């Protein structure tokens, strides 16, 4: 009887482990050179729809969305690391080669991780307003070890009622775009997110320091940064954080906040197509 109980327990544990929600969902369109589109935090893959429509050439587009966002079921922590591993596994399983990765914000972090792990598969990267170590800019001097899931800030975020969280999310959305008509779009993505994924997933991002992985990236890379708060400050930050990335070019976009695809879409398409056409 004891043996039977152990067997059943193992069976249930096995099924539980392999019945978890996927960390990523992918919408595929077109045919040609594979382009992996990675959105930022809380953002669905559909944020790239207009970029795909304005991309020159023949491409097979892989629009990625993440667990816990846009109605996708959440997964256990660590969140970012699981997403990274599933994306690397996906590129390997599909035997994708000469891959172009276009990543915004957190999507740029994932792009670096993938390119560092699969240098023979990734041809080029386009990183849009993405910094290898956010913690260094937001919390200078704070170490990775000091960033924990169990923190007073996280407890406060998790305990907020709907109205309180709405107010916080509204301020965040307003700070990420110059386009007033896009604020509600960003706000709705935040409000739609699973709250624990939103809180603990962001903790994962604050722990990241991908500067130590940059020298492993061989892909030709275009870095497109928003010139906010000033072009001088923003460009200095990019040059400092990406100094160990060997094959890169940095472009700064004026009159834009974090969501360059909202604030300066035509200029973004021009930069992306110019880079790809010359690559």
Our Rg estimate from Cα atoms comes to: 19 Å
Note the gap between the termini.
65 Å
Compressed to H and E, one letter per element, the order equals HEEHEHEHEHHHHHEHEHH
The percent of residues in helical segments reads 40-55%
Range of strand content: 15-25%
Category by helix and strand content:
alpha/beta
The geometry reads as: globular
The number of helical runs is 12
The largest pleated sheet is described as: 7 strands, mixed
Query: What's the rounded overall pLDDT mean?
Result: 93
Runs with pLDDT <50, length 5+?
A: 1-19
Q: Largest sheet, order of strands side by side? A: 1-3-2-4-5-6-7
| Overall number of strands | 7
List keywords for this structure.
single chain, 12 helices, alpha/beta, 279 residues, seven-stranded mixed β-sheet, 46% helix
Describe the overall structure.
The protein has twelve helices and seven strands. The longest helix has 16 residues, at 2-17. The radius of gyration is 19 Å and the shape is globular. The protein is an alpha/beta fold. Helix 3 (79-93) crosses helix 4 and helix 7 packs across helix 8 (180-192).
